[in-house]
């Protein structure tokens, strides 16, 4: 457990002894309970994972709400957007396009927080950080899908995760995470004679670039070559740039139409080219990953976790 994921981010359980952390056991069997090991912990029985979705009005939030509503093991208890959103006061299911589900879109989750086991966030970085602070203050589990955090925000999240179980993944798809897992091995096996470029493409409304996934792929490549990403990353090229260096990692970004998400790692070698490509065809790959993470987090002590931990890729 605990491999790095995300730019400048260290993952893994925080340094709080397991016995002093609050074990929230998610189970379908009501008889199964966990007893508190310290004053931080509470005894409780759980049959359902109760979820608040922050960023409920967005493309991802709406898909998460649909999947939560369809899953008998999960219950939606809150749907949150910002305070000036036109959907405030509307039924979250209607906003998600699945018809009324009896949960109203609000701008403040303090009312529903006590009813929730976990917050699933797909919003914007500043808002997500505010929700993570709130979750830490109330020792609630958090699943963070939002990308585009600054290095300082990543550092704060790492500290906050010492007070809550916090799951963070810039890409919740199983395929991308397995791709990340084999990428370092591929770089090592191919050796130094290959130029490596990373290309990513997303829809026209994505606000951060390059994607968190592309940055993570670049970090894995740099690490496998014994380099620091900041020393070797080249973000786009223009003009009389001269010959490409052997060590640089080019990172190219496309924004167009409704592309859900595509990532290519290109290895250009002598007389051949090898490409590792992942294409997300639906946002449900991310939404179902977030839901799976939310359930899994019910069994985790306080600390910071990634898809590598969930998929046991470490
Ligand atoms: N980890 C993954 O697998 C994964 C996959 C896809 C996307 N993402 C990331 O998830 C984030 C959301 O993506 P998206 O495509 O769903 O974007 P989106 O459609 O723009 O959704 C974001 C939603 O959050 C709302 N929002 C803004 N401020 C808020 C606040 N203070 N509280 C609550 N909600 C607020 C936005 O309101 P408006 O409608 O007014 O803008 C919007 O409805 C992005 O960072 C994206 O990169 C991650």
Furnish the topology, listing elements before pairings.
Blueprint lengths: L11 E2 L19 E2 L9 E2 L3 E6 L4 H12 L3 E7 L11 H5 L8 E2 L3 H4 L4 E4 L3 H13 L3 E4 L6 H10 L4 E4 L5 H17 L4 E8 L9 H13 L4 H4 E3 L13 E7 L5 E9 L2 E9 L3 H14 L5 E3 L1 H4 L4
Parallel strand pairs: 4-5, 4-7, 5-6, 7-8, 8-9, 9-15, 10-12, 11-12
Antiparallel strand pairs: 1-15, 2-3, 10-13, 13-14
NADP nicotinamide-adenine-dinucleotide phosphate (NAP) binds next to helix 1.
Number of helical segments? 10
- Number of individual domains: 2
Spatial separation of the terminal alpha carbons: 6 Å
**What ligands are attached or bound here?**
NADP nicotinamide-adenine-dinucleotide phosphate
CATH class of the largest domain: Alpha Beta
Instruction: Please identify which CATH superfamily of the largest domain we are dealing with.
Output: NAD(P)-binding Rossmann-like Domain
Proper CATH architecture of the largest domain: 3-Layer(aba) Sandwich
Q: Strand arrangement, largest sheet?
A: 1-15-9-8-7-4-5-6
In brief:
The protein is 31% helix and 23% strand. It has ten helices and 15 strands. α1 (59-70) crosses α9 and α6 (174-190) runs parallel beside α7.
Question: What does the model show?
Answer:
- The protein is α/β, with parallel strands linked by helices and 314 residues long.
- It folds into two domains: 183 residues, Rossmann fold, CATH 3.40.50; 107 residues, 2-Layer Sandwich (Dihydrodipicolinate Reductase, domain 2), CATH 3.30.360.10.
- It is 31% helix and 23% strand.
- The protein has an eight-stranded mixed sheet, sandwiched between helices.
- A hairpin with a 2-residue loop joins β13 and β14.
- It is elongated.
- NADP nicotinamide-adenine-dinucleotide phosphate (NAP) binds next to α1.
């Amino acid at each position: 457990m605990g491999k790095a994921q995300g730019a400048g981010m260290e993952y893994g359980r925080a340094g709080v002894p397991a016995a002093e952390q609050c074990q929230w056991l998610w189970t379908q069997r009501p008889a199964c309970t966990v007893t508190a090991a310290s004053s931080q912990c509470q005894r409780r029985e759980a049959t359902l994972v109760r979820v608040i979705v922050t960023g409920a009005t967005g493309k991802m939030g709406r898909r998460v709400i649909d999947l939560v509503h369809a899953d008998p093991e999960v219950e939606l208890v809150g749907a949150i957007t910002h305070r000036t959103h036109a959907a405030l006061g509307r039924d979250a299911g209607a906003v998600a396009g699945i018809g009324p589900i009896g949960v109203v879109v609000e701008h403040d989750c303090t009312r529903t927080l006590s009813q929730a086991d976990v917050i699933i966030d797909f919003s914007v970085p500043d808002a997500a950080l505010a929700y993570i602070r709130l979750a830490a203050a109330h020792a609630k589990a958090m699943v963070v899908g939002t990308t585009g955090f600054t290095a300082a925000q990543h550092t704060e999240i790492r500290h906050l995760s010492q007070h809550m179980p916090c799951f963070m993944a810039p890409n919740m798809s199983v395929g991308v995470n397995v791709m990340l897992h084999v990428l370092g091995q591929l770089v090592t096996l191919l050796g130094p004679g290959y130029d490596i470029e990373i290309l990513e493409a997303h829809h026209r409304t994505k606000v951060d670039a390059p994607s968190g996934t592309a940055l993570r792929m670049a970090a894995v490549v740099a690490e496998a070559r014994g380099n620091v990403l900041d020393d070797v990353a080249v973000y786009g090229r223009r003009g009389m740039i001269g010959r490409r260096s052997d060590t640089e990692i080019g990172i190219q970004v496309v924004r167009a139409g409704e592309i859900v998400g595509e990532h290519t790692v290109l290895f250009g070698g002598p007389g051949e080219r090898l490409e590792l490509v992942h294409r997300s065809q639906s946002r449900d790959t991310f939404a179902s990953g977030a839901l799976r993470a939310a359930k899994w987090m019910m069994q985790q002590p306080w600390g910071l976790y990634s898809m590598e931990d969930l998929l046991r890729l470490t």
